[in-house]
Amino acid sequence: MKRILLSVEYDGTGYAGWQRQSNGLAVQQVLEETLEKACGHAVTVTGSSRTDAGVHALAQQVHFDTGCSIPPEKFPFVLNTMLPPDIRVHAGREVPPEFHARFLSCGKTYTYRILNARHGTALYRNLCWHVPVPLDPEAMTASLSALPGRHDFVAFQAAGGTAKTTVRTLDRAEMRREGDLISIIVSGNAFLYNMVRIIAGTLAEIGLHRLSPDAFSSALASGNRLDLGMTAPPQGLELTEVRYPDRAFTDPAALRWHQEGGDAPCSD
Fold this sequence. Notes:
Elements: E1 2-10, H1 27-39, E2 46-47, E3 56-66, H2 75-79, E4 87-95, E5 107-115, E6 129-130, H3 137-143, E7 149-152, E8 167-178, E9 181-188, H4 195-207, H5 215-222, E10 237-243
Parallel strand pairs: 3-10, 5-6
Antiparallel strand pairs: 1-3, 1-4, 2-3, 5-9, 5-10, 7-8, 8-9
């Protein structure tokens, strides 16, 4: 048996999220069923992030164990002939048996996109949140300065979150605007349930002058979810990147952190 790591892109519109579940078709289920056909045996895949229904991924990382003879770098070519067009595998590599796509991740980047235009978009309606009222980009940009650093983000977690600790470290929180498209990019060591969507929803309400630009600072100080804005809809969210320290690919057994439990440095 060997452990394989795949980089997977998907449009989450038609799925009940990443994780296999009983109430709808999940990306994990489709990938596992396709791998079973390709490998000739049952396969269980483990993803780096449990994206919700309607959320997309540019580079979800997944690992699985197999004894089949397909070379690791050939998995994208084999699987992409069998997968539906809204799921694509872009890379495959063999990793040590102790490698874990989720627990050894030291950082992730998410992108949330808002179309701030009077009229919505037909072609990209499943890839962004349409906000038809003009937003104040200066107020939005200024408010993001409160987020980078190590904080207790308990106020940024939606009901149903199960993380053991709510302390997280963000190293990047910025906003870019190109025409009518606003992109919110957030990077950190780990994220709480719906954390990025809460940040995006709060930013929109700051941009609409419904919330003060110091809303993030107030919520960090109070720990109160009510100091923040709405949870933005899922279709604007994309898992953009998952990072691992080099040692995860050479000596993963030496890395003892559990990603839900706190800071995991990306440098060895």
